[in-house]
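Collaborator request log, item 7. Partner lab (contact: R.S.) asked for a structural prediction of Alkylphosphonate utilization protein to inform their binding assays.
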Amino acid sequence: MSPLPPCPKCGSAYTYEDGSLCVCPECAHEWSKDAAAAVVEAKREVRDAYGNLLQDGDSVTVIKDLKVKGASAVVKVGTKVRNIRLVDGDHDIDCKIDGIGAMGLKSEFVKKA
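Returned to partner:
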């Protein structure tokens, strides 16, 4: 379940769903769920370790040695990763790394190249 956005009229965080609408209990403002989903999607930002905004297709560089779970491989500092894809979740970058394959990275361990 995705979190509901705050009320666009008063900013209250206590919004709830009522059928196909979102409702604010503090000011009684009602708006459609589609508008609420657009607001949540618009606020999704992924930033690297230095605060730079990342987008799909960017290239990034790994800033820390990263152990790969389930394998004896290590992603070394300075490894450049091209054509990233942003996803929701704990590991918010999907990518392919040469010599290792497809994997997920956390944005806190990369910098924009």
